Amino acid sequence: MSPVADVETHCPYCALQCGTRLTREDGRTRVEPTAFPVNQGGLCQKGWTAPAVLDTPGRLTRPLVRGADGRLAPATWEEALDTIAGRLREIRAAHGPDAVGVFGGGGLTNEKAYQLGKFARVALGTSQIDYNGRFCMSSAAAAGTAAFGLDRGLPFPVTDLAAAEVVLLAGANPAETMPPLMRHLARAQLIVIDPRRTPTAEAAALHLQPAPGTDLALALGLLHLAVTEGHADHGYLNKRTTGFEAAWKRAAAWWPERVERVTGVPVAEMREAVGLLAGARRAYVLTGRGAEQHSKGTDTVAAFINLALTLGLPGREGSGYGCLTGQGNGQGGREHGQKADQLPGYRMLADPAARAHVAEVWGVSPDELPGPGRSAYELLDALGTDGGPRALLVFGSNPVVSAPRAARIADRLKSLDLLVVADFVPSETAELADVVLPVTQWAEEEGTMTSLEGRVLRRRRLLTPPGEARSDLDVLHGIAVRLGQDPGRFPTAPREVFEELRRASRGGKADYSGISYERLDAGEALHWPCPDTGAGAQAHPGTPRLFLDGFAHPDGLARFAEVEHRDAAETPGADFPLYATTGRVLAQYQSGAQTRRVPELAAAAPEAFVEVHPDTARRHGLHEGAMARVVSARGAALARVRLIGSLRTDTVFLPFHFAGAGRANLITSPALDPRSRMPEFKVCAVRLEPAEAGL
Fold first, then answer.
1. Residue 26's pLDDT is what?
2. How far apart are CA 362 and CA 4, in angstroms?
3. Strands (E), 307-446
4. pLDDT at position 4, please?
5. Are strands 609-612 and 635-643 parallel, antiparallel or unpaired?
6. Is residue 112 exposed (0-12), middle (13-18) or buried (19+ Cβ within 10 Å)?
7. Is residue 498 a contact partner of residue 110, using CB atoms and an 8 Å limit?
8. Which residue, among 590, 136, 146, has the nearest Cα to 377 in the 3D structure?
9. I need a surface site. Which of 255, 554, 609, 622 has the fewest CB within 10 A?
10. Contact yes or no for 332/456 (Cβ under 8 A)
């Protein structure tokens, strides 16, 4: 019998970051939930099966370098890193520092996200860095920052939701995307806004089912009713907000009957929704990807924030507005510098004071730091083009599956002079790489994550990495040193990186300077901002609830946004008569690179499918179980038909977790929100065909 090892850590998947205990005995890793506040002893199907990925067949354990024969072959770390550094030097010398791009991920620890941003801007000198969180939270971040002066997914603990009387969920399906959250919503009457009757909608007191791309019109209509039916909290508006009159002037034109014509949601249901929210002593408005992933996603989220402000909810204990962050470190991942326009501490890269502070911590001149670069899709779309990057380093992301207009993005990746992918499984993106670097997984590394409620958590190591796998911090160190950087500038110990992160974030909006491994390991619940105010009794307790005394603008007031509905970039027409929308299912996660390798999850959701109303299927010559082509102006996805009687007859739905011909993102639109640069994943125009028609 081998000795038993165990450690308390957190689930590797969504931003709920459920507490878990991992045990290793006789060569097998087991997981059990802990009584951590967000999951209270529960886990979802993905959490229970998470250890299966640790020992998955095909796990990357040795570096791979593509040879002259075009095949990836095992190499030593020295060979792989020397190859990368040599090629990077050549490309930078020929085309300049911006000829190298970096693409990160919302699942990276805070330490890795921080070091990645520093590596790009200091070791590479490039502005061309962004991450897949741009596809996840950017619209809510832009809207929240404009409204409140600060972006944190939930500005209150998840546990506050348990006392809610009414919760409006706009474009969120937590029953599938983060099931343990549902136990906190069990007492509340739920109002769910979603074109589909999801499992969350099934649990709702009221389900509003708008046409895809019309959420903004619906939010304007709800605000109209809140004002005209006497539910506006004028005392709160006068004391705690500014800009209401301009926002109301826009919403005044969206009378309920007009909204019904645009959205398809009956006036009576809109009126009931507003009445429920306004009549509750404790009420919340929560948004998710369904509201965000649009070419007008920032305005849509802003419109729901306007509704919450009109009812006097944000900044009041027991009520509020929040956004359900998606990826495991979607919150921390955008706070510390891997986003194109940001520096650590949620500082903005274009701010001279921010540049000076971070440059001092990094030991460089502010003038050496490049300016803001391209956003995620724009970066990927520019690869290999004139003026675009000729090399790309990818950490913790799989854009061949996850990016919109996926076939074009795969072509752009293939056109590069150098593609480097650091991953622990051979993802679809890794299969295209010139160099593949095997890196550690969640149970094999130390670090911190930041949950959707802004709580900083410890990730703890249980296992020794298999084979020759190294941490991403080791990878960045190895490349940086080969590019001439001082070895001490890119440490490999997570604790050492976090100590530097604390200094870099000091005084920023996301101030982590008062958070330490010692305090986290002692069990303290620390939500940022948590400035360094001293030790012991002088230590800052963190900020679990934001905005109770004022919003983060200089005058302490929340800002209304003056927004107007506009159509999606694509709407149905003669050639493409249906809306298509995309999303997640319970048994899979993100691009599926991990979960498709877990037998239990693969059995539960084995292949791409398309949900279709029976009448719609009949009109297109399709039946239950048939293979269909879902065709847009950009391409076609192959999927098995599922007949869903509760679906709108003008809408089809595809999950985006599957690879190959089943990629939902083969059809999605690259239209971008002008402020957040979020692609319009949630709506495009399509037609359905029997699969034989395209074979």
1. 86
2. 41
3. 320-323, 342-343, 347-348, 391-395, 418-423, 435-438
4. 59
5. parallel
6. buried
7. yes
8. 136
9. 554
10. yes
pLDDT at 282 > cutoff 50: yes
Minimal CA–CA distance to 75: which of 393, 468, 431, 421? 468
- Nearest-angstrom CA–CA distance, 50 and 366: 43
Indicate left, alpha or beta for 36 from its phi (over 0: left) and psi (-120 to 50: alpha). Answer: beta
Looking only at the bridges linking them, the beta strands covering 166-170 and 189-193 are parallel
Tens digits of residue pLDDT in 404-416: 999 999 999 999 9
Closest CA to 279 of 142, 123, 166: 166
- pLDDT-above-90 percentage for the chain: 97
Helices (H) and strands (E) in the chain, counts: 24, 27
CB of 617 closer than 8 Å to CB of 643: yes
Tokens representing 620 are 């297109």
Q: Is the dihedral of CA 14, 15, 19, 21 positive or negative?
A: positive
Measured distance CA(335)–CA(347) in Å, rounded: 8
Verdict on whether the full-model pTM lies above 0.90: yes
d(CA 613, CA 542): 49
Residue 375 CA to residue 387 CA, distance in Å, equals 15
Q: How far is CA 276 from CA 87, 175, 198, 224, 271, in A?
A: 61, 21, 21, 15, 9
